């Protein structure tokens, strides 16, 4: 069983939901061996039902207290460019495809996705190139995203504030 | 009458000058301030909303047991952060068996996308709550990472120093989401924080005074 998890974050991204559930994209996912599609659609106008997707089991919901379980169980995460979602997916060491909403004005949330893309931690596309990207994507070229090092911060602060180190 | 006005004018100028001189003195003393030498460091942690809170708890989690007690301040519209903090702290107290934290609320100083002018008003309003809180808690360190709430709290911390009551060390860690530009809080606190961290080299290039040690959350 191979699962795709789509997340749009706290707002909505109808174009992504429509695109992902379009016949063409569903076929592309099935061709790549995916058997299950779970969508978090936020305030989107439509919550796709489980019917009429050939070869793909579809489940959708608006919000959950935590989507970390959905992240964990996914083999591929398709996400909006929000920093929180990107970090959560990469933190869980998931293959991540970020879909940029080009209808939104440039906002600072995009900074992080762009940087993570140029450091080759994720793939990046728009709604209009989504299907094509799903057909050709290759995650083997990406480099793993290593967790940040808060202990370096703690060491620095101990020294700066004169806290005796405990080792 | 003219003399009186002139007197008031000079008086005010003198007070303003004293405050500025004192502010400069306080800001310069920052790196010499070592609250850790007395044993434990009392920390005021400014938790923002959502992502900010997750990030700051990772930082707090890296600190040793010398950093206690920990006083968390959250914006009063934020329920999620409160739950996160309680979960985080109860995991911490498993190690020591006694909780060493308190939680406080102040009015939110700036909602996302709030306009500049109304931000000023609500920040002043938040300051009105921040000053008594910070004066009561008297933290050694204020640790924050960018929510609007941190500006009035840092200002209150500075005020303690200006009045000569206590030198509060301000530690600011810019959110990992900020790659090319600082947040509004960051732009203000870059000039005031004693230790200002950024997590991407492009920001270090733009803001040379910042401390850069890679990603720390």
UniProtKB/TrEMBL annotation, chain A:
- GO cellular-component term (any): endoplasmic reticulum
State the superkingdom.
Eukaryota
Whether Transferase counts among this entry's keywords is: yes
Residue ranges the record marks as coiled coil: none
Which enzyme class, named as a word? transferase
PANTHER family in the record = GLYCOSYL TRANSFERASE-RELATED, N-ACETYLGLUCOSAMINYLDIPHOSPHODOLICHOL N-ACETYLGLUCOSAMINYLTRANSFERASE
Task: Give the UniProt family note.
Answer: Belongs to the glycosyltransferase 28 family.
Q: Please identify the protein, giving its name as recorded.
A: UDP-N-acetylglucosamine transferase subunit ALG13
**UniProt key word Cytoplasm:** no
Q: What Pfam families does this protein's entry cite?
A: Glyco_tran_28_C
What keywords were assigned to this record?
Answer: Endoplasmic reticulum, Glycosyltransferase, Transferase
Q: Name one GO molecular function term.
A: N-acetylglucosaminyldiphosphodolichol N-acetylglucosaminyltransferase activity
Q: Where in the cell is it found?
A: Endoplasmic reticulum
Q: Which Enzyme Commission number(s) are on file for it? A: 2.4.1.141
Q: Where in the numbering of this chain does the Glycosyl transferase family 28 C-terminal domain appear?
A: 4-144
UniProtKB/TrEMBL annotation, chain B:
Q: Where in the cell is it found?
A: Endoplasmic reticulum membrane
Q: What is its main location?
A: endoplasmic reticulum
Against InterPro entries, the record matches this protein to: Oligosacch_biosynth_Alg14 (IPR013969)
* One cellular component (GO) term of this entry: endoplasmic reticulum membrane
- One short Pfam name that applies is Alg14
Q: Which Gene3D superfamilies match?
A: Glycogen Phosphorylase B
Parts of the chain that traverse the membrane: 6-27, 115-134, 146-165
Claim: Disulfide bond is one of the keywords in the record: no
Give the membrane topology, semicolon-separated if more than one. Answer: Single-pass membrane protein
Q: Which UniProt keywords apply?
A: Endoplasmic reticulum, Membrane, Transmembrane, Transmembrane helix
Keyword Transport in the entry? The reply is no
Q: How does it assemble?
A: Forms with ALG13 the active heterodimeric UDP-N-acetylglucosamine transferase complex.
The record's family statement is: Belongs to the ALG14 family.
Protein name (Swiss-Prot/TrEMBL): UDP-N-acetylglucosamine transferase subunit ALG14
């Amino acid at each position: 069983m191979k699962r795709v998890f789509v997340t749009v974050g706290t707002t909505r991204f109808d174009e992504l939901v429509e695109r992902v559930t379009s016949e063409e994209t569903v076929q592309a996912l099935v061709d790549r061996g995916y058997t299950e599609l779970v969508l978090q659609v936020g305030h989107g106008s439509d919550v796709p039902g489980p019917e009429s997707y050939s070869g793909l089991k579809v489940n959708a919901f608006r919000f959950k207290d935590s989507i970390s379980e959905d992240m964990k169980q996914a083999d591929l995460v398709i996400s909006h460019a929000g920093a929180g979602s990107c970090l959560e997916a990469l933190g869980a060491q998931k293959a991540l495809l970020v879909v940029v909403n080009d209808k939104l004005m440039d906002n600072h949330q995009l900074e992080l996705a762009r940087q993570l893309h140029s450091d080759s931690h994720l793939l990046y596309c728009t709604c209009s190139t989504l299907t094509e990207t799903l057909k050709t994507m290759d995650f083997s070229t990406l480099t793993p995203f290593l967790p940040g090092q808060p202990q370096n911060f703690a060491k620095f602060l101990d020294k700066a504030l004169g806290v005796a180190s405990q080792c | 009458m003219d003399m009186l006005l002139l007197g008031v004018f000079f008086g005010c100028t003198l007070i303003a000058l004293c405050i500025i001189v004192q502010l400069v003195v306080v800001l310069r003393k920052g790196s010499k301030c070592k609250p850790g030498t007395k044993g434990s460091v009392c920390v005021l942690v400014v938790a923002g909303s959502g992502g900010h809170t997750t990030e700051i708890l990772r930082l707090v989690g890296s600190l040793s047991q010398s950093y206690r007690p920990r006083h968390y301040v959250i914006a009063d519209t934020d329920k999620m952060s409160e739950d996160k903090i309680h979960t985080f702290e109860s995991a911490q107290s498993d190690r020591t068996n006694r909780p060493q934290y308190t939680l406080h609320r102040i009015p939110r100083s700036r909602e996302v996308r709030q306009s500049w002018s109304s931000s000023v008003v609500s920040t002043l309003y938040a300051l009105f709550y921040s000053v008594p809180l910070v004066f009561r808690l008297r933290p050694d360190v204020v640790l924050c990472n960018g929510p609007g709430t941190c500006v009035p709290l840092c200002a209150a911390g500075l005020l303690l120093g200006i009045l000569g009551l206590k030198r509060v060390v301000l530690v600011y860690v810019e959110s990992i989401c900020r790659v090319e530009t600082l947040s509004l809080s960051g732009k203000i606190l870059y000039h005031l924080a004693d230790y200002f961290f950024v997590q991407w080299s492009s920001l270090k290039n733009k803001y040379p005074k910042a401390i850069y040690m890679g990603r720390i959350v």
